[in-house]
Design goal:
There is one protein chain. By secondary structure, this protein is an alpha+beta fold. Helix content is 60%, strand content 14%. It has helices at residues 57-77, 116-121, 132-145, 168-189, 206-215, 219-227, 237-240, 245-251, 255-258, 267-308, 311-427, and strands spanning 2-9, 13-17, 23-27, 38-41, 44-45, 88-93, 97-102, 108-113, 153-162, 196-203. A hairpin with a 5-residue loop joins strand 7 (97-102) and strand 8. Helix 5 packs across helix 6 (219-227). It starts with a strand and ends with a helix. 22% of the residues are buried.
Length: 428
């Protein structure tokens, strides 16, 4: 029995890379696997068929990233000898981006930082065996120490990918569960104002995660690119790795504009978005290829024309080329001016939204203050009223007691008078 990493998949064959760096072809048969996955095999094809396709550059790049992940994972788990299989991956994005692998019992068995802040966040973190809830508390504490939430404004994107395709209900349950764990951890740990810390849960298919890993970004960030793909401020693949996810969200109107609370994006929708993105790339490549072909034809025509025409015609051609070049420069300059104007308008809208949000917060604070003042005033009035009632009751009690004393005195006087009269009668 041999093992290898899947580097490319054809109709009838699979190309794998062995632990010693060799490439082998095996029969595909009924295998179901993905790029970068480690598989076991016994059926090596010694003579490759003539229609075997060379490994695609994108496939090799994607598989190489997976190989690095697997090597790192094996080095981490080497001492502990853990053989737990990852049941689901969860990514968390603020600016630190990390990915967590959990087993079927929701215990953490893998953790990796995706960007520099993410690497720093999980540095020297003892995570093995922790439950997802305990791990969430621990990560939020480290986020607090890193002062990533000090401003009270942040979008936390939680993206989950379940590896078992049959567990559709569990996928949705896991995403919401992790979201609630983070909200609870933030409420317990974060003491500063947090009115604008928004936690959003996304369920992404394996195809989205695979492409995110190949591009060196988180699943949540790739999902955010797909959700804003048709917007004016969409993010290209070239910008994706360097542009912070917070900037992507702000440029596209905020998370509530991108993904309203009532909207739940299914895995099928994400797959469709991913396919459309790939189709757009293919169309652009075809357009560029056709443009290059047309340019070659035009150049050939110009060469033939120049060979047949005299110096005067050559001079006219050069003038025409210069005019075309100048017109193209003018068009590019106009496009740049339009883009800059669009950026200014978008920045103005962002400032206006932020100003409006500040007004809302201030209005809420003022309402809360007025409510507290009214509550305090009511409390004081009740206390005054209660004191007045107590004083009145005291006066009534004293008056009753005085009347009783007067009555007792009068009774005593009457008794004494009767006694005196009685003695007087006896003496007489």
């Amino acid at each position: 029995m041999h093992k290898g990493i899947v580097m490319d998949i054809a109709e009838q064959s699979i190309l794998v890379m062995t632990p010693d760096g060799q490439f082998k072809q095996i029969a595909k048969q009924d295998r179901s696997c993905q790029l970068g996955e480690e598989i076991s095999y016994v059926d090596i094809i010694k003579k490759p068929s003539m229609n075997w396709r060379a490994p695609r550059p994108f496939a090799i790049a994607a598989a190489s990233v997976f190989c690095l992940m697997i090597v790192a994972l094996l080095s981490i788990l080497g001492e502990g000898g853990s053989t737990n299989k990852v049941a689901a991956y969860v990514t968390m994005d603020i600016n630190p981006s990390i990915e967590v692998g959990i087993d079927e019992n929701e215990h953490v068995i893998e953790v990796r930082g995706i960007n520099d802040d993410g690497l720093e966040l999980v540095k020297d973190l003892a995570y093995e065996g922790l439950t997802l809830e305990v791990f969430s508390d621990l990560i939020v504490q480290r986020i607090e120490l890193g002062h990533y939430l000090d401003s009270g404004k942040a979008n936390i994107i939680i993206a989950s990918t379940v590896m078992n395709k049959d567990q559709k209900d569990y996928e949705i349950e896991l995403a919401e569960k992790v979201k609630l764990k983070f909200i609870d951890a933030i409420n317990k740990t974060h003491t500063a104002p947090k009115e604008q810390i928004i936690v959003t849960a996304i369920t992404a298919p394996q195809e989205v995660r695979n492409e995110a890993v190949a591009q060196g970004v988180s699943t949540g960030k790739k999902a955010m690119q797909l959700l804003t793909r048709k917007n004016q401020k969409s993010t290209s693949d070239e910008e994706l790795k360097e542009k912070p996810i917070q900037q992507m969200i702000i440029e596209n109107g905020g998370i509530e504009e991108i993904l309203p609370k009532e909207r739940k994006v299914t895995k099928e929708e994400f797959k469709t978005m991913l396919k459309e993105l790939h189709d757009e790339k293919k169309d652009r490549k075809n357009d560029d290829s056709n443009d290059d072909s047309n340019d070659d034809k035009d150049n050939n025509k110009k060469d033939n024309s120049s060979s047949k025409n005299d110096d005067h015609d050559q001079g006219n051609d050069k003038v025409k080329v210069k005019l075309d070049q100048q017109q193209e420069k003018n068009r590019r300059a106009e496009r740049m001016r339009e883009e800059r104007q669009d950026e200014k308008e978008e920045a103005k809208k962002v400032r206006e939204r932020e100003k409006e949000q500040r007004k809302i917060v201030q209005r809420k604070e003022k309402e809360e203050q007025e409510k507290e003042q009214k509550k305090e005033q009511k409390k004081i009035e009740n206390e005054i009223k209660q004191n007045k009632n107590e004083m009145k009751n005291d006066r009534d009690d004293r008056s009753d007691r005085n009347e009783q004393y007067d009555q007792d005195d009068q009774d005593e006087q009457d008794d004494q008078q009767e006694k005196d009269e009685d003695w007087s009668n006896r003496d007489g």
